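task queued by scheduler; priority normal; single chain, no ligands, no partner chains; default sampling; output format set to structure tokens
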Amino acid sequence: MKNIEIKTTQNVVLQYELADLRDRMLAFLIDFAAVFIFLSIVFSTGVAIFASSETAMAMFVFFMSCIFIFYSLAFETLNKGQSLGKMALRIQVIKTVGGRASFADYAARWVFRMVDIYFSLGGIACILIASSSKAQRIGDIVANTAVVRLIPKTDLNLKDLLAIKTQQSYTPQYLQAKQLVEEDVLLIKSALDRYKKFNNRAHREALILLAEKIEEIFGLETPLTDKRLFLQTVLHDYVVLTR
């Protein structure tokens, strides 16, 4: 998986997982299908209404064409870098230098869609997204943007969890750990790994919030001071209790 690290204005390093070629192709197809279905329904209705007037019909066709042409630009600008397809795939356009993309950035990406996608039948976009370090097509390079996953796909699985070193005589401290599901435990391990790699305020706060949530699920009345140790203990307990 390709990742990108972005430093915020507060000097906090955030790590995002880049959307791969499959995600972006699926998002494009969803957008195309949504626009096609919408325009088909509206066009069939409009023809019945405006067929008697050539001027009205021409204006209606022009309006429909604008929807098709400016759909992605309008959606990404008004919806914080997400079209319908991107929302479905949970991916988003962001600036590679931090901060939110501006209208000019979205416009640059939109203009180069003609070269990246339409004129080359998607060939240029596919090659660049698959080969570039930041998974950028020409529009992304010009606008200094990237498309990232809002919910990272993790390569962790139960095999990784079972590989955590434990002692044969280890006694679980939190029997409630058995209530957790695999996704919960993978989230805990991912949070611990990110905190270890990026020991900054943002990841410390994320670790604290996650620990407090687990404490609430376990019904612990007294808050624990060492949140990291608590989460590590929960991981060990889960492994032992579910083997």
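post-processing summary
- DSSP finds eleven helices and four strands in the chain.
- The mean pLDDT is 84.
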